[in-house]
Amino acid sequence: MRTVGAYELDDDPVRLDLDVVWKHLSTEVYWGKWRDREQVEKVFRNAWRVVGAYETSSGRLVGFARAFSDTIGSAYLADVFVVDEARGAGLGKELVREMIDNGPGAEFRWMLHTADAHGLYRRFGFGDPPDGQYMERSRANGQV
For the chain, first and last CA: distance in Å? Predict the structure, then answer.
């Protein structure tokens, strides 16, 4: 656990409030609205690592990040969000830092997709694949 201002970052999955995660992913973000509750719970259960951001004073979950990994050399960063009322405190940046720089995957090759947060991820070295070898197959149904 690490304290950042008035918030705590913690990777204990037992502490996460799945109701908050479900509500935010199903109503507030473009990439999660197509998932149902059962699917969100399944990806949570199967995650390699999760990190939550909590208000120190109340313990309320205000941010989240999830990753899946092969556990030895690469990981995919997913579902990073900060609730509206906690934005502006740098929590998105700290969630990414905690996930990719301060955890067991600090030496991994990290991947992600985003339609709107390129500036955030560039701060952590994300960019166009340097070797030109990265390929992706889009979802058959057009969902991201």
Answer: 31
pLDDT-based confidence at residue 115 (cuts at 50, 70, 90): confident
d(C-alpha 67, C-alpha 60), whole Å: 21
- Give the residue carrying structure tokens 């990073």: 80
CB 14 within 8 A of CB 37: no
CA distance 131 to 116: 23
Mean pLDDT of 14-33: 90
Angle 39-21-119 from CA coordinates, rounded to 5°: 105
DSSP 88: T
67 and 76 in contact (C-beta within 8 Å)? yes
Q: Which residues of 58-79 are buried (b: 16+ CB within 10 A; e: fewer)?
A: eeebbbbbbbebeeeeebbbbb
**Is pTM, for the whole model, over 0.70?**
yes
